[in-house]
DNA sequence: TTTATTTCATAACGACCATTATAAAACACT
DNA sequence: AGTGTTTTATAATGGTCGTTATGAAATAAA
């Protein structure tokens, strides 16, 4: 019973996600959020909790709806295919929307006031989770003989993440998809392999 | 004539630089700045202008005092040495100060409110300047036969910058110097060369 | 010693921040 | 129709933001 809500939760969350994606956690004000969502402040609070909770919900949504290429990548047959799939996916995602370029997880809270520390840590954890999955995937590749025994799987995962973060910084600076693809190509040029040299 | 200033300009600017380095442009408040510098607000305004001007002065200081390894790198004999010198320098600089890790130019203003747009653009320009110098250096290396004719100098410069930006994000997330060095090693593994294969 | 000038410390400014109190409006159930 | 419950819209809360007005303190020249 009671009055039924007049806005769509998913739609509002999507709009909030776009604002945070563009301006980051601290750079996004409730004026921005109410304007983008078309929802008044108290409704946002009652639906999602405070700003931090709303941001964390947006982070969940981002991972679910935008990072689908990541598990796809992990399912690729070789470690090089994994890396390439991720780099292509990042290049595409970071330039797909001109009005909020770059990566939500990198833009969200790189540096900021002490009050944004919980959000910063949540984003750090999200990146660490991805890196750990990559490392595990590369360790599997090593056991399968896809990667040479000399390969440093942790370093490979960290390197791949570093390149994606760098591409995110560049996308936020206005780099186009072609420029990011060129960066990805260079990152792939060194990928270790057990394939026979020609 | 007139009362003489009771604080050291360089010292105050250095303290302000550290605050911006740690919290970014928008995340740093005048409370933070006055506390770190030991200088009252009106004195900061009369000495440096407003917050934006102070930040830009801090940017100049950062480039002059912290990025000395960059021209050093450009003076290395081969493009690979250039890249290695930069990557080692970034790994060291981004982890030198535990209380403000990462890169001032990346931390400063990646995403934020519309009011920080001028600062964002200044940092983008600073990165573009470095990338352009790298590209020119690599083009010279290509003419000298150090880089193969097939090398894409613009892409190499963008790739190298991407890795440094990614290392900055990781350093801000708490990565240690060794972890960044491992990323650097992997970035160098693919560097194109005209050397004879063994 | 007076005078002009610069810097100092205190405190105020309006604007915006995230958050919430309030009450009218819309619904479900009796 | 009436009652209880939820959402709505308006507007106010205290706090912090960047910036500056104000007048006392300190210095150099007259």
3D architecture notes:
- The structure is a homodimer of 198-residue chains.
- Chain A is mainly α and 198 residues long.
- In chain A, 70% of the residues lie in helices and 0% in strands.
- Chain A contains 10 helices and no strands.
- The longest helix of chain A is centred in the middle third of the chain and has 27 residues.
- The radius of gyration of chain A is 19 Å and the shape is elongated.
- The N and C termini of chain A lie far apart (73 Å).
- Chain A binds a DNA duplex (30 and 30 nucleotides) through helix 3.
Summarize the structure.
The structure is a homodimer of 198-residue chains. With 198 residues, chain A is mainly α.
Question: Looking at the chains present, what oligomeric state does this protein adopt?
Answer: homodimer
**Structural Rg of chain A:** 19 Å
Please provide the ordered H/E string of secondary-structure elements of chain A.
HHHHHHHHHH
Secondary structure tally: strands of chain A: 0
- Biggest interface and which pair forms it? A-B, 51 and 51 residues
* Average residue-wise pLDDT of chain A: 96
Question: Helical segment tally of chain A?
Answer: 10
Strand content of chain A: under 5%
Which geometry of chain A do the CA atoms define?
Answer: elongated
Low-confidence stretches of chain A: none
Jot down its keywords:
homodimer; mainly alpha; DNA-binding
In terms of topology, how is this protein built?
2 copies of one chain form a homodimer.
Chain A: H1 9-27, H2 30-37, H3 41-48, H4 51-66, H5 69-74, H6 79-96, H7 104-107, H8 117-143, H9 153-172, H10 177-189
Helix pairs in contact in A: 1-2, 1-4, 4-8, 6-9, 6-10, 8-9, 9-10
The first copy, chain A, binds a DNA duplex (30 and 30 nucleotides) through residues 1-6, 29-31, 40-43, 45-46, 50-51.
């Amino acid at each position: 019973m009671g009055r039924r809500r007049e806005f769509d939760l998913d739609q509002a969350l999507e709009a909030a996600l776009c604002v945070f994606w563009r301006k980051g956690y601290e750079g996004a004000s409730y004026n921005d959020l109410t304007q983008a969502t078309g929802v008044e402040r108290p409704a946002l609070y009652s639906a999602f909790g405070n700003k931090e909770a709303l941001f964390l919900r947006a982070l969940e949504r981002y991972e679910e709806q935008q990072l689908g290429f990541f598990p796809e990548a992990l399912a690729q047959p070789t470690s090089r295919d994994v890396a390439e799939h991720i780099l292509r996916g990042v290049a595409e995602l970071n330039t797909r929307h001109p009005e909020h370029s770059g990566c939500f997880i990198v833009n969200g809270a790189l540096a900021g006031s002490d009050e944004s520390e919980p959000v910063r840590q949540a984003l750090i954890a999200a990146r660490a989770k991805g890196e750990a999955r990559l490392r595990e995937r590369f360790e599997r590749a090593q056991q399968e003989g896809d990667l040479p025994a000399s390969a440093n799987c942790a370093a490979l995962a960290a390197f791949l993440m570093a390149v994606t973060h760098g591409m995110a910084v560049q996308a936020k600076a206005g780099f186009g998809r072609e420029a990011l693809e060129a960066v990805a190509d260079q990152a792939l040029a060194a990928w270790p392999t057990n394939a026979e040299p020609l």
